[in-house]
Design brief:
Order of helices and strands: EEHHHHHHHHHHEHHEEEHHH
Number of helices: 15
Number of strands: 6
Distance between the termini: 59 Å
Structural class: mainly alpha
Largest sheet: 2 strands, antiparallel
Shape: globular
Radius of gyration: 23 Å
Number of domains: 2
Amino acid sequence: MQLFEFSDNTLQIHSIKFDDFGRLYVSAREFDDLKGLPTDEIEERSVELLRLSVDETLTGSDVREWMRLICDWSGRSKVHIWHYIRDSSDDVLLNETNKACKAICGFHDKQVGERTEEDLDWALGGAIQAFDDLNGIGISYASKFTRFLAPEHSAVLDSYLSGLLHIDEDKQSYLNYSRGCRTIAKELNDLGVQRPNCVGGLWRAADVDLVLWRYVDELKVRKSTKRPRRNTVTVDPDSNTNESSKSRLDHTRRNILFPKAPMGKVEGSRCSEVVCQKCFGEVALELREQIRKWHKKGLSRGRDAVSFWDAIRTGFEQGKGGEPRKIDTQDLICEHSYGPFASEDVNLGQGCQNTSGLETSFWFAKNLRGVSNRNAWKPGVNLARNIAMQFCERKVNCEVQGVNWCETVLFKEAAIELEFAPRESVN
């Protein structure tokens, strides 16, 4: 297929081979699943959301939690969108989401042979309009919510992608873009190109959109640096083309698969944002306890952080089924401690000195166990590490004692964002 880019009065045409779709898709999915709950699990919850709406048992709190998961998935919940959803009333969230669900279900209720493109446009248009009517939600984010209600038919008109390709952010542009993604998905399926890591291997509009976003993201990264980055898909844009200076392109998503370790020789180089094992463990245990007290059964951040902490201090990763797997112990925890280590991924160079010489990471143990999303524990690990950095002396023999982690600024911020209560608010 061909992708057209118009930038600084220069027209560029990029060709994406259908054979490359699988590789781009896997790369993009690993990055998306790193940020929060895996995409497949959010899609399962979206099916349940539709069912509850049809049964008239959906609640405003159900909708808010579903939207929070999508905000985490998109990577921009804190600064841009989440506070609007958090502060909206249950009635408003429920009313608009029921409108969207009704529009999508109305299309699915039609017999397959009776469905038309006009019917589908009406359904998707009704859904995205309902979400767009929420305070603070524009077409870009409304398309994210619609995408999870109808991944077979809906793309995401991301502001980054629309900015780079000069696509207007309005309902009609969203419908046109989704239709284009559906057309490409049909071509891929007709040619027998399999979508990786899924039952049946069929492509959907949401999958094609993800591949295009990944390709364009890599294109921008390639054009904005003098040397190619590691772990990127090779593309061949015209080297004389200047990148658009529009400010809305500045939020390129970085750390495409994992936080990148320094490349080349790094003797003496050590991550500065480290915490000792003791402080990390105290925070992890406190997170797990507070989340349990607030009955947040679907929130695993504390439990995941404790699992990681147990593994790196005992040297054994525990999992569901099978024997414990031996991993390397670590006294200091940095952004590379989760894995993969440089010994496990040749593209990482020599890694940082905190993990230099280590052979088996928590990430790799999950990979050997056959876990589909081996990055699922990382959000909890990062949360605990960030909170611990407030007071930890950041050395092996840290002498910090008696910190009431629940009363620290970052712990309270996490309690608000993830909707679990600090100790004094729990009965």
